[in-house]
Design goal:
The complex is a heterodimer of chains A (234) and B (422).
Chain A (H helix, E strand, L loop, with lengths): L1 H53 L2 H8 L1 H7 L5 H24 L5 H42 L5 H24 L3 H26 L1 H12 L3 H7 L5
Chain B lengths: L8 H10 L4 E7 L3 H18 L5 E7 L6 H7 L2 H8 L7 E7 L6 H14 L4 E4 L9 H12 L5 E9 L4 H15 L11 E4 H10 L11 H11 L4 E8 L10 H18 L1 H4 L10 E2 L4 E3 L7 H14 L1 H7 L2 H11 L10 H17 L4 H22 L5 H17 L1 H9 L3
Parallel strand pairs in B: 1-2, 1-4, 2-3, 5-7, 5-9, 7-8
Antiparallel strand pairs in B: 4-6, 5-6
The chains are: A mainly alpha (234), B alpha/beta (422).
């Protein structure tokens, strides 16, 4: 009986040792991948940070209005955020690659899905950034044009342009990520529709007099007054 | 030789038929049928009167006129001019026309004229504005003579103007070009000017033409090229400049083709203008400037209101462009009533210099920077009008001189900002 127990125990220890010996190289490979991944991710972060500083990415982000959002959320600069993002995505990729080497069933699928998801994530972030840039550019262009044309409430016009573009960009962003596509579609429809309706009501009812004055100024203003408006600048 | 591929085959053929010339008159046009007849008549009279022995050609670069302008230029016969001038040309006076595009682009028009001048080996050339109804035959000889006879490379015009006409010129372009480039040229953005074939060729080859400035504002680039190329420059008094009615919407395009071009040129010319201290006069034929004091109705209230609205609404834009001190000062004066409101010369100069530095650093889109200057310029115009409402011609001239000196005094401030690249 005692010998049987010892035999079973020895067998179990042997199995464990065999199993461990079987997994050890994979574990070492995983650790190497994780360490190498950290190093590569760190180098990528440093290089990216230098490039972004060189091309004054923070200025671009400031123009896009992204810096203001980051400041409000007490987050680091856009350069730092993007560098960290690349670091973590790269390292996480290597960690998952290492885990996949272990050959644990069930995890393989999830890891594969993560790698398939990565390009979409990058594209979504890029769309979001470019969208914010476009929103900032066009809202500023609208503001300047409205101020120089002496249009009433230019800031409202500018904010409307910005809001429309941001709502539109967010809907594309979430669609690209594949997150709650139906919900986002409905939300976008509601938000966009509400915005348009709000603007129409605001202009039609709230700003009736304003609109009247604007149209009068534009089309039936006294010719004499028009002539007095501006002197030839050149 | 500059790449002539932008010239049409037909135009090329016409140029070959003309052969070499001594004098070339460039007429950039776009739907100018109303005025062009008189202008061509006066150009022909001017050439017949002052240069009857010289070989001359009129080159019309048209931006897609639909009112028959090119036909009017080429259709006026020399016989229409002879009886009036009383002289006879000893050579054929050619007039040829080419369409360079379907929309007017002053840069392309100038490039066409310069290329034609080079191909025809013209010794002296002039460009005449198709809008100048007051143009006289003497203008032609006045612009040509310094180049043809006295060896000048550029003849810049001076005019008799109303004291409130050309305020962008008197309040920004003239003082800034003078302070930075050290040359006192009254009209650096020229609608009529004369130049030597040498300067024309030099500019034709040196200018990029592919950047945005080539499309508009090439006239200012031309002046700056003459200054930086150390060419012989003079000014010539022509006469009364037309008062052209402008709409409020015309200010931004005017700023783009003048201030935008100047700010853009400052980057490439930095090595030159940064070393210049003070300014010097250029030889002037006739009076340097004549100021008309007739009463003129101006909507001051609107100017003031557009300035105040601009400062309030564009706060975020100004914060990106201007220093906090300047923004604060603008906010302080923006709330003042019409009677107390003044945009002092020093603040105006600081504003302009900070705009130039912001443009160089591209703190925001460059076109947006230029557009943001428009409401501030209106504030400055308001102040200039109020300060010179009852001023004599001498007082107006002294005020402009004072502003110029302020631009020169604060030049180190611009240099300091320029060098502090982020």
């Amino acid at each position: 009986m005692r010998e049987m127990i010892i035999g079973e125990l020895t067998q179990a220890v042997h199995d464990l040792a065999r199993g461990f010996a079987h997994y050890l190289p994979r574990l070492i490979v995983m650790l190497i991948l994780v360490l190498a991944g950290w190093l590569i991710a760190y180098i990528a972060k440093v290089i990216l940070r230098s490039i972004l500083r060189l091309i004054r990415f923070d200025r671009l982000s400031e123009n896009a209005g992204a810096s203001q959002l980051l400041n409000k959320a007490a987050l680091p600069s856009a350069t730092e955020m993007l560098s960290r993002f690349v670091f973590w995505v790269t390292w996480l990729g290597f960690i998952l690659l290492g885990v996949s080497v272990l050959g644990i069933l069930g995890l393989q699928d999830q890891i594969a899905r993560f790698f398939f998801f990565l390009p979409r994530l990058f594209i979504a972030v890029l769309i979001l950034f470019l969208g914010l840039l476009a929103a900032s550019f066009f809202s500023r262009a609208a503001l300047l044009a409205a101020v120089n044309a002496n249009v009433p409430s230019p800031r409202v016009l500018s904010m409307a342009v910005r809001s429309i573009i941001i709502v539109f960009v967010l809907s594309i962003f979430f669609e690209e990520l594949g997150l709650a596509e139906q919900t986002m579609l409905v939300a976008f429809g509601i938000a966009f529709g509400a915005l348009m309706l709000g603007l129409a009501i605001a202009f039609g009812i709230g700003g009736r007099e304003l609109a009247q004055r604007f149209l009068e100024d534009k089309f039936v203003r006294d010719k004499k007054q028009q002539d007095e408006d501006e002197l030839s600048p050149l | 030789m500059e790449d002539e591929s932008f010239l049409t085959d037909d135009f090329f053929r016409q140029l070959i038929n003309v052969g070499e010339v001594d004098i070339l008159v460039g007429l950039p046009t776009h739907n100018n049928a109303k005025t062009i007849g008189t202008i061509v008549h006066n150009v022909r009279s001017g050439i017949l009167g002052a240069f009857p022995r010289e070989r001359a050609v009129i080159i019309n670069a048209d931006g897609g006129s639909r009112d028959g302008t090119p036909e009017l230029v080429t259709g006026i016969s020399i016989d229409d001019v002879r009886p009036a001038s009383g002289v006879y040309a000893l050579r054929t006076l050619h007039a040829i026309s080419t369409k360079y595009g379907s929309a007017p682009q002053s840069g392309v028009a100038l490039r066409t004229i310069l290329a034609a001048a080079e191909l025809l080996r013209a010794k002296a050339c002039i460009v005449v504005s198709p809008e100048s109804e007051t143009i006289a035959p003497e203008w032609i000889s006045n612009l040509l003579r310094p180049v043809y006879r006295d060896g000048f490379d550029l003849v810049s015009p001076t005019y008799r103007r109303h004291k409130f006409d050309g305020l962008l010129m008197t309040n920004l372009l003239y003082p800034m070009v003078r302070a930075l480039y050290g040359v006192r040229i009254r009209e650096s953005y020229m609608s009529e000017f004369g130049f030597s074939g040498r300067l024309g060729s030099q500019f034709l080859h040196a200018n990029g033409w592919k950047d945005g400035t080539a499309a508009s504002g090439a006239e200012l680039c031309f002046t700056l090229a003459a200054i930086t190329g150390e060419c012989r420059i003079c000014q010539c008094f022509l006469g009364e400049k037309d008062h052209v009615e402008r709409r409020a919407a015309d200010l931004v395009p005017a700023l783009r083709q003048t201030v935008g071009v100047l700010f853009s040129a400052l980057d490439s010319d930095f090595s030159k203008w940064s070393k210049i201290v003070g300014s010097h006069e250029v030889p002037t034929i006739g009076s340097e400037q004549e100021i008309v004091l007739d009463p003129l109705r101006v909507n001051r209230k609107r100017l003031h209101q557009m300035f105040a609205t601009g400062v309030a609404e564009l706060e975020s834009v100004f914060q990106a462009i201007l220093s906090p001190a300047t923004v604060a000062e603008l906010h302080r004066i923006a709330v003042l009533g019409e009677d107390e409101f003044r945009y002092p010369a020093e603040l105006w100069v600081r504003t302009v210099y900070e705009f130039a530095a912001a443009y160089q650093k591209s703190v925001i889109n460059r076109d947006h920077i230029i557009q943001a200057l428009a409401p501030l310029f209106r504030g400055r115009v308001f102040t200039f009008i109020v300060e010179n409402r009852n001023a004599s011609a001498n007082d107006v001239a002294n005020n402009i001189e004072g502003l110029c000196l302020e631009f020169e005094r604060l030049k180190p401030y611009l240099l300091e900002m320029w060098k502090s690249r982020e």
